[in-house]
Design goal:
Layout: H1 3-14, H2 19-29, E1 34-38, H3 43-52, E2 56-60, H4 87-100, H5 110-130, H6 139-149, E3 155-159, H7 162-170, E4 179-181, H8 191-205, E5 211-216, H9 217-223, H10 226-232, E6 237-243, E7 246-247, E8 249-250, H11 253-260, H12 265-268, H13 281-286, E9 290-294, H14 297-309, E10 315-320
Parallel strand pairs: 1-2, 3-4, 3-5, 5-6, 6-10, 9-10
Antiparallel strand pairs: 7-8
Length: 340
């Protein structure tokens, strides 16, 4: 090949733009400021290109997926009306229609009457459970003391079975778009990812705003290594692990030891039991954050107060509760119940 052809080929290669660069530039033109991902081929190349154009990249350790299927409409309970489409587009269409034809559900209707009565009875039952002084604590006692100290503008992330369901009824939100949880399908593993995303935005836009991530001990296990991500970026997150030694229910240490007398754990341990008194707070301290192990309301109050006051370090409070503690009876099935 002649020198002129080699020079022309070299100039052509220098003028080429990588696919990663094209993706990064396209995202930047759409005002994307943050990118979350799992490093690997081809994500590494895209992440580097994104940083070059000014997009902030947060490297995660656990991958998630989202799927929207028309087939899910009507699963579990048959709805009177179904809406299929992008949530932003559908919401915009609904608001535009309400602007044209203002309407609200009559406040004195029978439906509102029944709903208010149900709210009142639920509140009374929750207060009764929260007032119990016995140890180990129950879910309601824990959430009552947490609610007392929650900053009004904090983001609340919750994940778990009983932890999330009870937390929804006790932990209050006062501002829109400040609660993130696994939703009615009970998807596990999303909590820490939600918390990290919220904390990145809070740290940039409103320094001092806190993210409170409330996890069941089983839920924490799905993506607990994201604690390293939290510490790597020094995010303003307070993690609360509500620990009952199991999935829904577990055993205390004495019961666990007694059970093992009858055989190996693989043959005698109920599948929903986890190792009693696991010290999840050490996961946080291993990466440089603050960790607390609490068993009483007083210890919970003190550790939460210290965590909220410390704006320089993330923290994890491992809260031991009654292993056999449950919630009040559930009136409706999970949406994962098949309609077949």
């Amino acid at each position: 090949m002649s020198e002129s052809n080699l020079a022309a080929r070299s100039d052509g290669l220098e003028g080429q733009v990588s696919g990663a660069r094209v993706i990064a530039q396209a995202l930047k033109t759409q005002d994307v400021n943050y990118m979350f991902g799992i490093v690997g081929i081809p994500v590494t190349e895209i992440a580097l290109a994104a940083q070059e154009v000014g997009i902030r990249y947060i490297g995660m350790r656990n991958e998630q997926a989202v799927d929207i299927c028309a087939e899910e409409l009507g699963n579990n309970v048959r709805p009177a009306v179904t809406l299929l489409g992008d949530v932003n587009a559908v919401t915009k269409q609904l608001l535009e229609q309400f602007d044209k034809t203002p309407w609200q559900y009559p406040p004195e209707s029978e439906w509102w009457k029944v709903l208010r009565e149900k709210m009142k009875s639920n509140e009374a039952l929750s207060k009764e459970l929260a007032s119990k002084k016995s140890l180990p604590m129950n879910y309601y006692t824990v959430f009552y003391h947490v609610q007392e100290q929650l900053p009004r503008d904090c983001f609340v992330v919750s994940e778990g079975a009983n932890t999330m369901d009870i937390g929804r009824t006790v932990l209050q939100n006062y501002l829109p778009r400040h609660r993130l949880d696994a939703g009615t399908f009970g998807t596990m593993g999303v909590g820490l990812g939600f918390a990290i995303a919220a904390a990145i935005v809070a740290k940039d836009r409103n320094p001092g705003q806190r993210v409170i991530c409330v996890e069941g001990d089983s839920a924490f296990g799905f993506s607990g290594m994201e604690v390293e991500t939290i510490c790597r970026y020094n995010l303003p997150i307070v993690l609360l692990v509500v620990n009952n030694n199991g999935i829904y229910q577990g055993f205390d240490k004495d019961s666990w030891k007694e059970m093992l007398k009858f055989g190996d754990a693989t043959t005698v341990a109920p599948p929903m039991c986890l190792l009693p008194h696991s010290h999840y707070e050490h996961v946080m301290t291993a990466f440089g954050g603050k960790g607390y192990f609490v068993q009483t309301p007083e210890e919970l109050q003190k550790s939460l107060r210290q965590s909220l006051a410390d704006t320089t370090n993330p923290s994890l409070i491992n809260i031991m509760i009654e292993p056999q503690g449950t919630r009040k009876a559930q009136d409706f099935h999970w949406l994962t119940r098949s309609n077949l």
